[in-house]
Amino acid sequence: MSKNSFLKGTLILTVAAIVSRVLGVGQRVPLQHIMGNDGMTLYTISYNVYSMLLIIATLGVPSALSKQISEYTAVGQYHEAHQTYKAARNFALVTGVVMFLFMIVIAPYYAEYALAPQAELAIKAIAPAMLLFPLIAIMRGYFQGQQFMQPTGLSQVMEQILRVATAVALPLILLHYGYNKDVAVAGASFGAVMGSVAAVAVMIYFYKKHRPDQKKRVSEQKNYKKLTYRQIYGKMLRLSLPITISAMAVPLLYFIDSSTSLRLLTPQNERISVTLKHTDAIIGGKEITLPIAPYLYKNNTTMIPLEEASVAMGADLVWDKNHQRAFYERGPVKATLVMNQPVVLNGKTFGGPLQLAAGTDVPCVPLRFFTEQLHAYNEAVDTVGILGGSAQSLAGLPIILAIALSSSIIPVVSAAYSRRDHAEVQRMSSMALRVALITGVPAALYLTVAAYPINGLLFKNTDATYLKAAFIIGSLCIGTIFQIMMMTSSGILQGLGRTDLPMRHVIIGVLVKLAGNYVFAPLFGIYGIILATSLCFIAVMSLNIRAINQYTKLAILGERWRGFLLSSLLLSVIGLGIIWLGFTVQPHLPIPERLFFGLEAAVIGACSLTAYALALFWLGGIDVHDIRYFPNVAQKVYRMLSRYRIVPAYVEEQKSHVN
Fold first, then answer.
1. Which of 36, 138, 449, 540 has the fewest CB atoms nearer than 10 Å to its CB?
2. Nearest by Cα to 301 from 387, 212, 384, 367
3. Does the pLDDT of residue 215 top 60, yes or no?
């Protein structure tokens, strides 16, 4: 594959990833406005467990299938290719059903473990997507193996459009009809199901469209080998299992965070977790058995026994049976609860009254009556919502190029390595890591230094969350620098045929993450959890690069490190300077706050990124020779700028003047 083909392939994958990522971020912005940070915590918990199980359900088979289909079609073995596809399709259908049932069964137990019992409905609502997405992934792998990318690209776009439309519209409809936030979050999670319907419809359309041509090619092949399921699955799983574990890196980290963050950030005496239809509960950090299981009032409000929960919370409860009311007191919290009247605390109502559970004499109140009193728990829920709803969505933007690079570099390095062209392996591996650095770092730095205005522009904030959210977003985004290098270097190792190494390195990285969460969270809170994520990326990246250097001597930037670092420093200084200026002038400008944040983010981007690009060339952070590997449009723009001496001229142009 030529250098231009490599970059064109990267560009195509990048554009597809950009559309998907932008729509994904675009979905979470209105969701955060609709449901708040506490609602985003529940959404993130449900989505992360789904993403994790989806990877397990597919077991990396789509990537292995793509490789096998490509190999078979290259030598005209269309019959064997079709047998392999059918086996993979059947595998996807079975694992999809198994994982769907598994999600339904574990939903209440996992939600309780995560200290977010309200997330049970959201987990169950997203589970049906598991029935279709393994099949969609297999069909995408099948078409990619035939070098036919249109079905994959179009299905991804249609999936995101319907997912976003449903995830935004359905919560609004549910809230309008009086359902509580837990049900609204479940409606948002159901968007994934509608997205899967759209994606599978696109894939089936293309499959039927190309089926006649496929049948013709299969029928024309006179001699073919009948493959058994054992042969197909054996070969497929040998290829796919290492890919699966490598692909699990980021989803597994986010799954770890959504599973452990509330536990790590909430003091023992403020923990509360109950499950519908189960009498075992944790309230005020105490494990108790309730006289009746929690139930739903009007299908939208979780109700729990008042007396047992009050005792566990350490509250005093006095009954006035003549007037059918109770006096509740817990420290500064005081409330009068009247039978069959809405429960009110600090001016808030919670969607249900004080009532006797059906067929019993057990008085019950909404669960939120108690969770509202747990200030540390509520603070943790709000913080985890910022991490999952705002920070993780923005941190997904800088890695777009890394996703494309890690996909494109595999066949390039693989082809060169099979030819024993070590010079080409060294050049293309170094080039991929270099491109990842010089394009990924400015994106990560921009989101870091501009986190305050970006947060103010996109997300709903209170006076207490503006700075906290900005620091969380910036802290997570700066770590994506190492994530970019981790993903790109993993792609290089896969191209070298060492799929086992990224797998081993990811396992080590996950252990670093787990240990880091439990070591640093008690010391630094949410920032300790973010630090553990960055340490995981650093560990995997370092191990990957060390392994690559055993095959070929990498020359990522060489002597260009100084120019690159100075350019990155210039970007940061300019961005922080504009932030400081914004704090100074904002109080004196009579414009809406959100508009100001939008203008500030745009000015930071225009000034800091332009300065970075110019400094990169003038300070020698990038070799002018590399311009000839850029897409034609970028080359034309560079030539135009070089005429006005805005950037250095091509070496070839300089030589022509000498001659």
1. 36
2. 367
3. yes
The C-alpha atoms of residue 450 and residue 599 are separated, in whole angstroms, by 11
* pLDDT given at position 408: 61
pTM, to two decimals: 0.86
Of 592, 63, 508, 11, the residue nearest 252 (C-alpha): 508
| Alpha-carbon radius of gyration of the chain | 28
Q: How confident is the model at residue 653 (pLDDT cuts 50, 70, 90)?
A: very low
Rounded to an integer, the average pLDDT of 444-450 is 96
> Mean per-residue pLDDT for 245-265?
90
Most distant CA atoms of the chain, gap in Å = 107
Q: Tell me phi and psi for residue 346, to 5 degrees.
A: 55, 40
* Residue labelled with tokens 């809405």: 342
Contact, 397 vs 447, CB < 8 A?
yes
Give the residue from 187, 54, 200 showing the smallest Cα distance to 124.
187
Angle at CA 569, nearest 5°, toward 565 and 573?
A: 175
* Alpha-carbon gap, residue 182 to 338, rounded angstroms: 25
The string of pLDDT tens digits covering residues 268-315 is 888 888 888 889 888 888 889 999 999 988 877 889 999 999 999 999
- Assess contact for 304 and 290: CB atoms under 8 A: yes
Distance CA 89, CA 81 (A): 12
Residue entry with tokens 């004499």 = 361
Q: How far apart are CA 385 and CA 261, in angstroms?
A: 10
Q: How many CB atoms lie within 10 A of CB 197?
A: 16
